[in-house]
Amino acid sequence: MDTEVGVVFRRQSTIMPETMGRMTRDFLRANDAVEPQEAFHARAARARDAVFGRQVFVRGVVEVSNYCRQNCHYCAMRRDNRQLMRYRLAADEVADLIIHHRPASITDIDIQAGEDPAAVREVVLPLMRELRRHTDLGITLCLGTLSSREYDELRADA
Ligand code: SF4
Questions:
Q1: Is any atom of ligand 1 closer than 6 Å to the C-beta of 115?
Q2: Which atom of ligand 1 is least distant from the CA of 6?
Q3: Which of 44, 134, 148, 154 has the fewest Cβ atoms within 10 Å of its own Cβ atom?
């Protein structure tokens, strides 16, 4: 499905893995922080356990809109892609689905969209209010770059 292709592209780093590995090693060397990989992983695991404990969080990703005002050439949701069928979900419908029909294992919801301020106003904000009112789900957002006012509104509802 076109939408899924967009999500996959968006979640990928634009930096090649080997370049990322070299950058990480260079950073560690520059900061005199090179240590054996196993020790590094063990230290990361201790930090993770200290913050989150030994729990498993299951995050459900909900893509509420594939409209986007940006035009990143690698992304199927870019604004000039006329082949993609666009959608913006209705807040009340997606709220009902999440509140009453989500899998029992879900502990967190990640609300995503292209960079679409209309979706923030019309879908994300009302959806967050409903989720706050009716569930104890953790909520994360992936909505592109927004204005300070929009971030303030999202924070107020978070
Ligand atoms: S900003 Fe829009 S076009 Fe760019 S990667 Fe995100 S969804 Fe795709």
A1: yes
A2: 8
A3: 148
User: Domain containing 14: what range?
Assistant: 9-52
**Same domain as 134, residue 122:** yes
Q: What is the distance in A from the centroid of ligand 1 to the CA of 112?
A: 11
Is this prediction's pTM over 0.85? no
Write the pLDDT tens digit of every residue in 35-75: 788 888 999 999 999 998 988 899 999 999 999 999 999 99
Query: Which H, E and C letters describe the chain, residue by residue?
Result: CHHHHHHHHHHCCCCCHHHHHHHHHHHHHHCCCCCCHHHHHHHHHHHHHHHHCCCCCCEEEEEEECCCCCCCCCCCCCCCCCCCCCCECCHHHHHHHHHHHCCCCCCEEEEEECCCHHHHHHHHHHHHHHHHHHCCCEEEEECCCCCHHHHHHHHHHC
pLDDT digits (tens, 9 = 90+) for 89-142: 999 999 999 999 999 999 999 999 999 999 999 999 999 999 999 999 999 999
Distance 106 CA to ligand 1 centre (A): 26
